[in-house]
Amino acid sequence: MSETPRVLRKITGNHLEDFRLGQVFRHKGGKTVTEGIFASFTEFTMTTNPLAKNARYARAYGYRGLVVPPGLVMLVAFSQTVEDVSENARANLEYIDMRFGAPVYVGDTIEVETKVLGVKPSSSNPKLGVVHVQSTARKNVGEADEAIVMTWQRKVQVWKRDESKTVDEGEVAPDEVACELWLPPHQPGRDYKGMAHLSSGDTYFEDFAPGTRIEHWRGRTMTDEHIHLTAVLDNTSQVHCNQHMIDLNPKQYVGGRLIIFGGIPFTLCLGLSCPDVHDNALGDLVYHTGRHTAPLFAGDTVFAATEIRGKRDHATRPDVGILETRLLGHKFEKSEGAAASDEAPAGYKKTQIFELDRDIVVKRRSHYA
Amino acid sequence: MSETPRVLRKITGNHLEDFRLGQVFRHKGGKTVTEGIFASFTEFTMTTNPLAKNARYARAYGYRGLVVPPGLVMLVAFSQTVEDVSENARANLEYIDMRFGAPVYVGDTIEVETKVLGVKPSSSNPKLGVVHVQSTARKNVGEADEAIVMTWQRKVQVWKRDESKTVDEGEVAPDEVACELWLPPHQPGRDYKGMAHLSSGDTYFEDFAPGTRIEHWRGRTMTDEHIHLTAVLDNTSQVHCNQHMIDLNPKQYVGGRLIIFGGIPFTLCLGLSCPDVHDNALGDLVYHTGRHTAPLFAGDTVFAATEIRGKRDHATRPDVGILETRLLGHKFEKSEGAAASDEAPAGYKKTQIFELDRDIVVKRRSHYA
Amino acid sequence: MSETPRVLRKITGNHLEDFRLGQVFRHKGGKTVTEGIFASFTEFTMTTNPLAKNARYARAYGYRGLVVPPGLVMLVAFSQTVEDVSENARANLEYIDMRFGAPVYVGDTIEVETKVLGVKPSSSNPKLGVVHVQSTARKNVGEADEAIVMTWQRKVQVWKRDESKTVDEGEVAPDEVACELWLPPHQPGRDYKGMAHLSSGDTYFEDFAPGTRIEHWRGRTMTDEHIHLTAVLDNTSQVHCNQHMIDLNPKQYVGGRLIIFGGIPFTLCLGLSCPDVHDNALGDLVYHTGRHTAPLFAGDTVFAATEIRGKRDHATRPDVGILETRLLGHKFEKSEGAAASDEAPAGYKKTQIFELDRDIVVKRRSHYA
User: Fold this and answer.
1) Nearest to C224 by CA among C244, C247, C240
2) Residues in chain C closer than 8 A to A224 (CB atoms)
3) SS (H, E, C) A160-190
4) Calpha distance B154→A26 (Å, rounded)
5) pLDDT in tens, B124-179
6) Residue C115: which H helix or E strand, with range?
7) Which phi and psi (to 5°) does residue C102 adopt?
8) Most buried residue, A302, A310, B364, C134, by CB count within 10 Å?
9) Cβ contact (<8 Å) for C56 and A30?
10) Does residue B26 contact residue A197 with C-beta atoms inside 8 Å?
11) What is the CB neighbour count within 10 angstroms for residue A170?
12) Residues with Cβ < 8 Å from B244, sequence gap 6 or more?
């Protein structure tokens, strides 16, 4: 080795000026869902739906085995897109039309493609702009059970690297993606009642009334475990795991601290709501829209609530109904002198951190219990 | 959504007045033992018995694969009972007659039922009482290899919610539960000696002398990892994971901090004792009685010791013997000005945290090495 | 139990005077690689090579499934030797001639033997000496696919327990160990190009130029997760997990704190370098030499760089080449008043923590993309 080697530093990810309208990224890596990541995430979130906990129950319902819950499908698929789409992002603005398809099992391998639907420079800040993308996740590409497992759009605020560069501004139409939630057929011969004690008895479709808000009872304090959890997902964004980078310039970063990857409160809120809302769900149909409304840090305790906004029949399946909900996440922050209220105890204010408009396919008691 | 939704908060778990003598809970969920939870717990405890570490060794002994160690069987089974039995408990008072049956393998699904044996209001505190229960865990219910894997009783101190309610006081007899430890047959043709180097050479049945106490050498510092570990077990008790709840009223909670779930020192003490005590065990027969004698917090370092209290032959198997032990867990707490003693170094006192009377089935050197 | 039991404390591991030249340890335990430990380590290190992430890709290349990356093979194999070789070590001095053989898959069981090649008392400190050993790891001993997966030498500084004892000083020759990296055959009929988007496009053999140093972009902050990670590996050394022991005598221990097990920065540096260096590698051929040059503690952020030192053809395989590299790990430590430099930002100094001379087998673009 010579004493003066040539030094290389690769720029990873794309900046605003690098995105081309209609461009398609076939993301690197892909990820096989192991029992390791399944246990870390499904169980960390306190998910209670037996489809994700009890293999004999899942098989009896017609699944091949333990079902990877939608929150974990989302985390694995979403993380595959980070390097190309949001490694140089300032913030993830919105999740849009997130739909689920085939069930994902342990051993399945997920690969993702993303199309650029829109690029728009900021009118006020020449260093920023918004990128609008559509991503689709497939499992077991090239194998007999290849299937689409998820598709979604998102808008993300991305930094520009070189202000002088032009931007490929505009918007193109999203692709039609055939992604419909697979449901195991209801078979009258199956002994659903004999397994009914394994899920909660008061979360069938008949039990929900629009106009109610359920304050979920459990809270969960996050620790710096989030660094490990984020790495295990292949999310490579440095704002979640590089304390030295934060220390050099804390003012540049939200809160001056390592921020928790948004996918973690996303899936944690889903888990905290599970015993009250989707213990008897067969799947999540669509997340119409969702966003993070405040950052989360190690030491914060996450709580969740669900608004029941509507109910409707399923087009083809009388054994289930569709529950229209809004999932809300929040935490409490110290607030000197604040009086107690319906919203928060004395000395605290309630800060909303997450919201997600979510349609769920829920079993009817008439058919399953 | 109307602006004034009706707010629901579900009360989870039972209070003293909710328990009925003879009542049976068929607990929700069930849990499939994945390789994820197997690795987190078996290996976190520093278990050294090759049956739980080396699949080719376990198969050569006649097991189907890696054997889930008794501490993890207990954690998985016990946690299934928390919501119904002890979500509203003040303390777990005693483990009684905890017996093991069929071996548990990765992929097995555990489901648990609990019968209420006794309810007794406190004579001194109208807000408290003791509930006495008997729980039985089965694996693979309804499948060809359905079997009882564990049965136990416990007494737990539970809060009353409404002091004016009457309590179903009394005691009923426990059920007879056919739960006997399965042992792989000793087959003279197997090359046990060729594998003997994989376990410690000085922990055969012949090596133990009643009247000795083994101070296990290794210690293990617990971190706030306990929050994650507890969630992964489906233990939903908020005193282990909800820092906000503690902050609002620290005096109500032991130590004013998140307390570590007792199952964690239980299994950690088992692991720390493994190289000296059960490296050559084929299984744990029974835990006659056990209790937590002091709380454990993040930052504490756990140590363990084992008293050898007796030895006896196995009724039907000349290749093994039964070792009668008491497992003790302890930690050291700072104690200003304390002199050094046999028990603790200067400036510290020794605090016992756990004890368990435990009969173990141990291989004889004459047959295995 | 009598009131005055006889107390036993087992001495674990060997001290300098216990080692005999030419002695062979057949290490206890063995370890089956579960999906739990695979996920914890492969993904924690931010490894990006699809062979370790994407099972359908690995199968398409001719592997049986997900390939355990060399860093994890090393961690599992090395840890098996700790109790016998380095439980009573002061420091691990050097890794030598670390070579890889058969691929390791989830479900494989690794067992290790170690031969004592040298023992040498310190000339300056009668309490210390150096032990030189050669270890070989096999998988699935006694089964159809038994194979050598790794062999290596190391030198370790070990404490003497009894200064008056003589030491078996000397050096014997290492064994010849047939351990060559298995490579899946290149088959022209396979659609390698159809999978080429899953790995980085600029890390084929043709892309590397000797005389360059690649500063890898990502950093990773370590937390006290290292305690759990080390236990999960069966590394039993108390300096990584027993805070009470440190508190009693902090001056005796490096930094007066729990030190992170060297295997963790070893594998983390490999992972951080992956996207730039071995995203298109088929395996690691040999680590000629390696050492830890400074300790790592919880809170430190790890960075890595790779020097490209040479390139050569593979003796029998035109589809790959051998890349000769030096992997370097470092962290930044606060340094009052330090001016900014090429090496470190103002107020910090750069501290090298690890170096490893490493030959990698890398695919040629001509054959694979």
Assistant:
1) C240
2) 223, 225
3) CCCCCCCCCCEECCCCCCCCCCCCCCCCCCC
4) 56
5) 999 999 999 999 999 999 999 999 999 999 999 999 999 999 999 999 999 999 99
6) strand C109-121
7) -70, 150
8) A302
9) yes
10) yes
11) 12
12) A219, A221, A301, A303, A331, A332
Beta strand spans in B125-201 (E): 128-139, 147-159, 170-171
Residue C359 pLDDT level (bands cut at 50, 70, 90): very high
Q: Which of residues 126-155 of A touch C (CB under 8 A)?
A: 140-143
State the Cα–Cα distance between residues C18 and C9, nearest whole angstrom. 18
Question: pLDDT below 50 — which residues of chain B?
Answer: 1-2
Six-digit token string for C317: 């395989």
- pLDDT tens digit string along C273-311? 999 999 999 999 999 999 999 999 999 999 999 999 999
Partners of C131 in the β-ladder: C119, C156
Q: Which of residues 191-220 of C touch A (CB under 8 A)?
A: 194, 197-200, 202, 209, 211-215, 217-220
The dihedral built from the CA positions of residue A329, A332, A337 and A339, taken in this order, carries a sign that is positive
How many angstroms separate the CA atoms of A245 and A261, rounded? 16
Find residue A215's DSSP bridge partners. A305
Name the DSSP letter for residue C105. Answer: B
Confidence band (pLDDT; 50, 70, 90) for C3?
low
**pTM for this one?**
0.94
* C276 part of contact set with chain A, CB < 8 Å: yes
pLDDT of residue C9: 84
Amino acid identity, residue A358?
Answer: R
Q: DSSP letter at A138?
A: E
pLDDT for res C311: 98
What sign does the CA torsion over B220, B225, B226, B232 have? Answer: negative
Q: Is B221 helix (H, G, I), strand (E, B) or coil?
A: strand
The verdict on B344 touching C (C-beta cutoff 8 Å) is: no
DSSP secondary structure, A260-319, as one string: PPTHHHHHHHHHHHHHHHTTTEEEEEEEEEEEE-S---TT-EEEEEEEEEEEEE-SS-TT
Distance in angstroms (rounded) separating the CA atoms of residues C327 and A69 = 39
Answer yes or no: are the C-beta atoms of C140 and B55 closer than 8 Å. no
Strand-pair partners of A68: none
Angstrom distance (rounded) from CA B277 to CA B264: 19
Element (H, E) at B44: helix B44-44
Average pLDDT, chain C: 94
User: Coil, helix or strand for C301?
Assistant: strand
Angle (CA) A31 C147 C186, round 5°? 55
Cα–Cα nearest to A17, from A92, A113, A116, A94: A116
A59, B38, B160, B194 from B166: Cα distances, Å: 43, 43, 10, 64
| End-to-end Cα spacing for chain A | 72
Query: For residue B337, what are its two tokens?
Result: 């000005």
Inter-residue contact A196 to A279 (CB < 8 Å) = no
B227 vs A57, A66, A221: nearest CB = A221
Q: Please answer whether residues A348 and A334 qualify as being in contact, where contact means their C-beta atoms are separated by less than 8 angstroms.
A: yes
Instruction: Give the angle subtended at the CA of B213 by the CAs of B207 and B216, to the nearest 5°.
Output: 90
Contact partners, residue C346, CB within 8 Å, separation at least 6: C338, C339, C340
Pairing of strands A212-215, B6-8: parallel
Which of A227, A228, A233, A260 has the highest number of chain C CBs within 10 A, making it the mutation to test binding with C? Answer: A228
User: How does DSSP classify residue C175?
Assistant: P
Cβ atoms of C38 and C106 closer than 8 Å: yes
Q: What is the CA radius of gyration of chain B?
A: 22
Separation of alpha carbons B361 and C309, rounded Å: 58
Residues of C in contact with B106 (CB under 8 A): 34
**Contact list, B276 vs chain C (CB under 8 Å):** 8, 10
Strand pairing of A6-8 and C212-215?
parallel
